[in-house]
Design brief:
- 14% of the residues are buried.
- The model has no long low-confidence stretch (mean pLDDT 78).
- This protein has nine helices and eight strands.
- The two termini are 43 Å apart.
- Helix 1 runs antiparallel to helix 3 and helix 1 packs across helix 4.
- The protein is 48% helix and 16% strand.
- It is flat.
């Protein structure tokens, strides 16, 4: 009996990992919008996962154990997603830049698993009809598109008012979950010494006390320390 229960637990863990890997391989499309075809694929994968988990025998006990194990695996995954930036990167991937300064980055389309027609549709949904008007377009992990227009194409058009505006730039994430991101910090044009000085001026002892921090285009630091419960 014990050997049977252990086998069920191991099969359930395997089923969960296989389903997670297949979902990751399929990309973000199923997250953003589920079509009938995507729904059928999801149901099929779910059925296959259950067959892997239960094996040849399909008793009530093994079914309950399989459901409990897969639920626990999902809870563990959620916890790791919150606590570990490395695990989060492996599970969700990273946002993909598709347009920069009005130019398509065609080499990133395969990475994002998106076609040009889908990109154009997402742009139209944001009332953007010209690629040249876009400063940055980023395909997020959840399948949504984030668009940053060029300064002269913003709602209150600086071009119409003949007012010069500095180019828009994205804020750089410099601290996530208490850890400094050296690459982003360097790209923002600042050093670790500057970052530590800025934190100390806000009464924050070090990066390990910071949940999230970023530097905007103007060089200003935004820092959100952990709550008192941390």
């Amino acid at each position: 009996m014990i050997q049977k229960l252990i086998a069920t637990v191991l099969r359930s863990m395997l089923a969960y990992l296989v389903l997670l890997a297949l979902g990751r391989l399929m990309g973000r499309k199923m997250i953003s919008r589920i079509t009938v075809f995507d729904f059928l694929i999801g149901v099929t994968l779910g059925s296959l996962a259950v067959r892997i988990a239960l094996g040849d025998e399909n008793s009530l006990l093994t079914t309950v154990i399989s459901a409990v194990v897969i639920t626990c695996m999902a809870l563990i995954t959620d916890r790791l997603n919150i606590k570990s930036s490395l695990f989060r990167k492996i599970e969700e991937g990273e946002p993909v830049l598709l347009i920069r300064n009005g130019k398509l980055l065609d080499e990133n389309f395969a990475k994002a698993k998106i076609s040009i027609s889908k990109l154009l549709m997402l742009l139209r949904q944001k009332d953007v009809f010209e690629i040249e008007d876009v400063n940055y377009a980023i395909f997020e992990n959840d399948g949504n598109l984030t668009v940053l227009l060029k300064p002269e194409k913003l709602p209150v058009s600086a071009g119409d008012l003949k007012i010069a505006k500095p180019a828009n730039r994205l804020s750089a994430d410099v601290i996530v979950d208490g850890k400094i991101i050296p690459k982003n910090l360097k790209a923002s044009g600042h050093t670790e010494g500057w970052l530590l000085q800025q934190l100390q001026s806000r009464g924050i002892g070090g990066p390990e006390q910071v949940f999230y921090a970023s530097v905007n285009a103007a060089g200003r630091l935004f820092a959100a320390p952990y709550g008192k419960s941390k």
